[in-house]
Amino acid sequence: MVATEAGQAGLRAVAARLTGRTLQAEEALVGLRVTVPDRRPVVGWLDAERRRGVLAGLAAKGALWALILAGQWAEDLDGGGKIEAEAQAARYGGRQN
Q1: N or C: which end of the chain has fewer CB within 10 A?
Q2: 42 close to 89: Cβ distance less than 8 angstroms
Q3: Cβ atoms of residues 29 and 3 within 8 Å
Q4: For residue range 51-88, what is the model confidence (pLDDT) as tens digits?
């Protein structure tokens, strides 16, 4: 399922506020629930080009980490930050942050 234009615009606005720059998404899909075996939050890049990423696992317990991990990912996007090792997507085959 494809995200609505209003939904995409809202997400772009938040991303711009967090990173201080305009981001463009090639595609936005909704209705996906990403889970990992240990049921902990996961964030980071899924490819070496840093074109695909994930921020997931933010249900009940992970919701407390949402703002922290989003901020760490935004700092990593600028090249000056590091994502918590326990939350990195690399632990399940994603790119090392």
Answers
A1: N
A2: yes
A3: yes
A4: 778 888 877 767 788 888 888 988 888 777 788 888 88
Can you give the three-state secondary structure of 24-92, one letter per residue?
Answer: CCCCCECCCCCCCCCCCCEEEECCCCCCCEEEECCCCCHHHHHHHHHHHHHHHHCCCCCCCHHHEHHHH
Q: How many whole angstroms separate alpha carbon 81 and alpha carbon 83?
A: 7
pTM assigned to the model: 0.59
How many angstroms separate the CA atoms of 93 and 95, rounded?
Answer: 7
Written as one letter, the residue type at 75 is: E
φ and ψ at residue 85, rounded to 5 degrees: -55, -40
**CA–CA gap between residue 67 and residue 41 (Å, rounded):** 12
DSSP-based three-state secondary structure for 2: strand
Q: Which two tokens stand for residue 33?
A: 């629930």
